[in-house]
Specification:
Elements: H1 11-30, H2 36-42, H3 49-56, H4 59-76, H5 82-90, H6 92-97, H7 100-110
Length: 125
């Protein structure tokens, strides 16, 4: 049985990805009307280190980070509405699938001939 494996992304691709999304996501989170304690979990002291790790970490690092963030957010989310606000701030559909140039560039950089969002087959040269 063959296993499907993702290749590790190059530093160039990670730098491009971070440059394309990090500041925009940080700004969106600041504008998301999250309570200050929840925002502090995601952006401690207003910094972007946690967001950068979310965008560029290797897969084995993401699961423990996700557990840690979910626990911290759940503890601080008094109103119970933070999850939707955070998902809207990340705006995956708008940032990647809603922007064909970005989706195409990402697919090209990671070496796939399918859309990184919907798996539709595109070709590139």
């Amino acid at each position: 049985m063959n296993m499907w494996q993702l290749k590790l992304h190059s530093e160039d691709t990670l730098t491009w990805y971070k440059g394309k999304f990090l500041d925009n996501i940080a700004d969106s989170l600041k504008d998301a009307k999250l309570n200050d304690e929840v925002l502090e979990v995601i952006m401690p002291k207003g910094g972007k280190a946690v967001l950068e790790k979310l965008l560029t970490a290797q897969p084995q690092e993401l699961y423990p980070l996700n557990i840690e963030l979910e626990k911290g957010i759940k503890e601080k989310d008094v109103a119970g509405d933070s999850k939707d606000k955070i998902l809207n701030a990340f705006n995956y559909e708008g940032r990647i699938s809603g922007d064909k140039e970005v989706a195409y560039e990402l697919a090209k950089r990671i070496g796939t001939r399918t859309c990184v969002y919907c798996n539709r087959i595109y070709s590139y040269g």
